[in-house]
User: What shape does this take?
Amino acid sequence: MSDVTATRPTMSIGGLWAGYQRWPGWLQNLTNATLGMGILLFVWWIGGLLIASNPDTQAFANFAPGPTFQALWYLIETGSIWETIYSSLYRIMIGLFWGIVIGVPTGILVGYFLMVRQIANMPFQFLRMISPLAWMPIAVLAFETWDAAIIFLLVMATVWPIVFGTAHGVQRIDPNWFQVAKNLGADGYQMLRRVILPAIAQDVFAGIRLAIGVAWVVLVPAEYLGVTSGLGYAINDARDTLDYDTLAAIVVVIGLIGYLLDATAVALIKRYSWRVE
Assistant: This one.
């Protein structure tokens, strides 16, 4: 009887990778997101163990994932988180609205007219590099209410990415398009509506995406002002009362809402992208 050697198939890393690449795109994205968040939670959990095991930092042990998610569930169950979220989203949306109202027309002027761009470039770059929070003392003096002062700070955070994104989009438009539109008898309004706005939509939404990111970062310290609502106020209040699990839960909420806002902006950019995959 002859010996028969049975060969067992071996799975290499290359084979696993090739199999992974054959998965549907949505499944790959879900797997990547799950793996990334799993790593983040693991690092967070390890950090919580290290904090709890150190006598000098035991007071901050509630920053760990377990207490944080318990506090988050309590905030959701009692409904106290929704008013906090609403207050912050209201301020962000009003600030973003005025940033768009000011930024898009200004960006079109800067991008379309060479003289305006040359005159405005240096002062706009100067103002852009000033931290929005640096305007806080002026905002407190200039506005009657704390809400108005915070919204002003958010406008200063959102307007510059929108201005420069819009101007960049206008500068990218093929000059022949304007010539064709003029030859077809387009007036200024039709030029704006039919040529400029469709052409710059992707750049405008890209600027809005950057503006949302900056405004969301500015929001928390801005809400340290005299308001008694909002995510920034909730963090400040939790810090003062040493309620660290609630503080960490608010941080999770801020990250989640910020991610959803950014994802919305990305969806709008893809919607108005001229590239066809």
Summary: The chain has eleven helices and no strands. Residues 188-222 form the longest helix (35 residues). The chain has two domains: 6-53, 72-271. The chain has a mean pLDDT of 84.
